[in-house]
Amino acid sequence: MSLINSLKIIMKLISLVIAFGMIVAISPVNAESVRSNNEIQSRIHEIASGLAIGQKYVSQYSGVIYQHALAYHIDPDWIKAIIMVEAIRPHSDTENRIPPTGIDSTKWVGLDGVSVEQFSNVDTNIRLCALLLQRIRDRILENKRSFSLVASLYDNIETTTVSQYGLKAEKVFKEKWWLKQ
């Protein structure tokens, strides 16, 4: 790998850290800063791995994504952005969330007649994501409608404002992270 490619990768990782609000203060080396640096390095690795996984899902299931986006009259890039955000979500936040769309199997069991076991079927998983995004979008007043609010409600249906999740999803959507190398 050339030095230029190495620097590009490092710059991408730094931009990811900044994009997710992780600000690292430089301090004298002590046990706590080493542990903190290890945690940061671990999270950077988790994000980079998540990006690759998200891109793989989007590429592998693009036909399914387009099929369900068309059926539910939503932008297919909304589903792609949700998949990417879920792929980079910290593993500690993923209990009951089923990849690739991170749909919460306990919260949405029974939606459209789907059982918990069916959430693992990728076609069903993406269809339910599209259905939820459509229903959420359609219930938001048109003058207040934004993908960041729709994504916030997708993550937590009880929220009343745009969340960090929604802001991340909006950024991923606008920048089309699934296309980045």
Explain what this protein looks like in three dimensions.
The structure is a single chain. The protein is mainly alpha-helical and 181 residues long. 60% of the residues lie in helices and 2% in strands. The chain has 7 helices and 2 strands. Strands 1-2 form a two-stranded antiparallel ribbon. The radius of gyration is 18 Å and the shape is globular. 30% of the residues are buried. About 6% of the residues have low confidence.
What is the strand tally?
A: 2
- Using the CA coordinates, give the radius of gyration: 18 Å
Low-confidence stretches: 21-30
The share of residues in helices is 55-70%
Write a concise keyword list for the protein shown above.
two-stranded antiparallel ribbon; 181 residues; globular; mainly alpha
